[in-house]
Amino acid sequence: MNYRVESLLSARLFVVPQHAQGRIYFLSNLSGHLSLYAMSYGGSVPEPLLPPNIALQNPELIGGYSFYAFPELDKILVMIDHDGDENYQPMLIPLAGGFPEPAFNNFFSEYRTHLGECDREKGIVYLVAERRDKALQETYRGDLKSGRLTKIAEYEWGMFPTAYSRDHSRLLLGTGYSAGDDVLFLRSKGKQKLLHGKPLEERTEGEQVPLNGIVAAVFAPEERGSIVLSAVFEDTFSLGYIDFKKPGELIPVQLKGVIHRGVGEMVDLKPLKENRYLVIFNIDGCSWAYEGVFDEKKLRMDLKYVLVGTRPLDNGVLEHIDYDKTQDVFALSFSTAISPTQVYTIESKKRNQLRLHTSEKILSIPEKTLAKGEDASFTSFDGLRISARLYLPAKSLGFKGPRPVVYYIHGGPQGQERPNFAWFSMPLIQYLTLRGFAVFVPNVRGSTGYGLTYTKHVDRDWGGQDRLDHAHAMTKVLPKDKRLDVKRAAVVGRSYGGYMTLMQAGLHPDLWKASCDMFGPYDLLTFSERIPETWKPYFRVALGDSDKPEEKEFLIERSPKTHLHNMSAPMLVIQGRNDPRVVAAESEDLVNQLQSKGKELELLVFEDEGHDVLKYENRVTCYNAITDFFAKHLNP
Predict the structure, then answer these.
(1) Which of 227, 368, 403, 454 is least surrounded by CB atoms within 10 angstroms?
(2) Is 333 helix (H, G, I), strand (E, B) or coil?
(3) Is 555 a residue whose pLDDT tops 90?
């Protein structure tokens, strides 16, 4: 049977849910693009809250909340950009929906703004606003009742509120310079006290400071100290405690009640109510979430209840979880490799009341024909363990013989491919297996999910050992699997994965019969010039500084542009016109320059997309274009 990608996309997204006063607010692409909706507790026909011409951004790209509901104020604050340009503006609509109006007298009109911590009861929000004209980020407290804005900080690297005290008189502020190089401050009475880390301005030239990997910091129940999630004690992250009277002294916190097993990280810590906290893990790419109780005297976190990780919320990804402390209800969105996002609530004192509020399904494709994936981890060229999964066509599909391979590379680079149906890749992976391809998905060095040391491998080494991990898999690992035909292989990736796709095509052309680059950097010099101003300080540290002659040479050597004259297989290039991260000129330069040298390239540009392909019609076109292109050249 010939399955259509529309069947996979018939399962609409239900993401970033919030529960408030018996209503559930969420984003969905019910109309063909992401927008804001509400439904009654227990499920009802979703009610649109925004005009149909407004499309919202992918929550995984936005950097903060997509929206926040304030029922007591009869308002929702929603972050709106224009077709993926990521110039987010805080806009207000009535709780029942309506036409958005600029919040705070349109103060942020010339900024790219991110919505951080929010206090639903007091109507207070924290925003980080990126200047568009220079590398400066400004931090504000906003009072939605009065419309007043208070400037808290400004810094080239950004100051991000991680938590506020009950009366908002104190804030925990974090900043960082590269993965794991973080600094934590306590702001009180207009002054900032250093709690952990060393600010860049206090370092001597060339000084190397110990990485602390501060992921989250919250106030402890008595607000005399902070519980900190960091990599100080464990490379895979753990909890510590800082007494505000003893800055710089991070003390380990005992953790009791962990029931999961496997390789992974502790990834988040959030305050709930009084002495209760949400603790989240990523284990083998799958989510585990616990409700814990913190004993400040004993410095111990007891994980009392498993919220996510056991059936039916197992072997998948927690897209988002929100806690309504007024009604003591969790709202969450969860999906797996073969099941789309669903909205659930968890309640009762023992957290044993799980209620499903949606019933999304994949249209006309039996579950037995979908690929759950299998572990395909391997040992790389230098002995490092690389996590990977292999998705094979179901036997019921009737394909015979070894399957051609599509090699999928995730973005980031400090990201991770997970069994997450909410993300762009999973419907594509499933569609490829339905068409007869095997899909290999590695999380090579530099990925998140396996400890800070693993993640740091890629800093200042783009296209180095990470590239060799891929080459090793293709030459030494996958050929041993008789179910695969590595002589018929294609490579595809998005963003950094697009960059690595280009590097593979240029430096290992003999491995590939086709490739697909989705908005990947082509020339690291022009890429570094074209990114937003506020991104440039980070990339000078984590990638390389083109103003320094020796580093400029490195960036040239690690640019796909330097090597793609070796490219021998056809390439499909996909780009969003409004992409602010990898601008359209990068892909256009790639295609124009290589076509002039006689290379075979096709360019597909989506005029109303940014650094993603989100709108329904565009996704259908995109998935079909990739799959048909590979089918043409690999003949599954």
Answers:
(1) 368
(2) strand
(3) yes
For residue 1, pLDDT over 80 is answered with no
Name the band, by pLDDT with cuts 50, 70 and 90, for residue 42: confident
* Neighbouring C-beta atoms of residue 38, cutoff 10 Å: 20
CA distance 398 to 407: 22
Bridge pairing between strands 484-494 and 403-409: parallel
Is residue 337 within 8 Å of 419, Cβ to Cβ? yes
State the alpha helices, DSSP H only, in 235-298: none
Residue linked to tokens 């639903």: 120
> How many separate helices (H) and strands (E) can be counted in the chain?
12, 38
Residue 562: strand, helix, or coil: helix
> Would you say 115 and 149 are in contact if contact means Cβ atoms under 8 Å apart?
no
pLDDT at 516: 98
Residue with tokens 């690690």: 558
The torsion region of residue 633 among left (phi > 0), alpha (psi -120 to 50) and beta comes to: alpha
pLDDT for 287 equals 98
The 10 Å Cβ neighbour count of residue 299 is 17
Maximal CA-CA distance, the chain = 71
Dist CA 8 CA 339 (whole Å): 10
- DSSP conformational letter for 475: I
Residue 228 host element (H or E)? strand 225-230
Q: What is d(CA 112, CA 110) in angstroms, rounded to the nearest whole number?
A: 7
Residue pointed to by tokens 């401050």: 185
Torsion sign over Cα 583, 584, 589, 591: positive
Tokens linked to 303: 């994980």
Helix (H) or strand (E) holding 90: strand 89-94
**Rounded distance between C-alpha atoms, residue 103 and residue 219, angstroms:** 28
Q: What is the C-alpha separation between 365 and 458, in angstroms, rounded?
A: 39
Q: What is the dihedral of CA 58, 61, 63, 64, to 10 degrees?
A: 20
Mean pLDDT across 455-466: 97
Residue 360 identity (one-letter amino acid): E
